[in-house]
Design goal:
This protein is mainly α. The chain has helices at about 1-10, 40-45, 60-65, 85-95, 105-120, 130-144, and strands spanning about 20, 30-35, 50-55, 70-75, 100-105.
Length: about 140
């Protein structure tokens, strides 16, 4: 995913990016990256963002849904050695069609999602009518 981001930023240099990359050895050439970000800093970055690029972790998805922030979600794929199974693919499928969740499974789809999300007018939480039903679904999914 970081390679997708770096190459996209090379082609779109007017965009800024801050990334929490964990223990990845990949270092972004075209953005600012941290191995970890404190919770208050993370909340600040999130509230000042136009979108979030994330793997299909429920914590990030819920955080974005709560504030109406669009996401480009790149699920980790077991066959590529990115995860132990394909639970991220299974989980994210429940969100397909949501105006906030844009799913990219390869670099071409990533580029399309980025273009689509950034071409939309900036909205707020009220601009996404399915927000409450999506949050309810996620909470029900996590409680079961």
């Amino acid at each position: 995913m970081l390679g997708y981001i770096d190459r996209w930023l090379e082609r779109n240099p007017d965009n800024e990016l801050v990334a929490q990359i964990g223990c990845s050895e990949y270092q972004l050439k075209n953005g600012v990256s941290f191995s970890s970000v404190l919770p208050d800093d993370f909340a600040s970055y999130l509230s000042n963002s136009e979108l979030m690029i994330t793997h299909a972790g429920m914590g990030n998805i819920i955080s974005c849904l709560e504030i109406g922030l669009p996401m480009v979600v790149v699920p980790r794929i077991a066959e590529l050695g990115e995860h132990r199974n394909n639970h991220q693919l299974d989980s994210i499928e429940k969100f397909r069609g949501s105006p906030l969740v844009n799913i990219a499974q390869d670099e071409s789809e990533f580029d399309e999602c980025m273009s689509e999300v950034l071409s939309r007018p900036r909205g707020n939480v009220d601009g996404f009518p399915c927000r409450d039903s999506l949050l309810g679904y996620v909470k029900m999914f996590l409680d079961s």
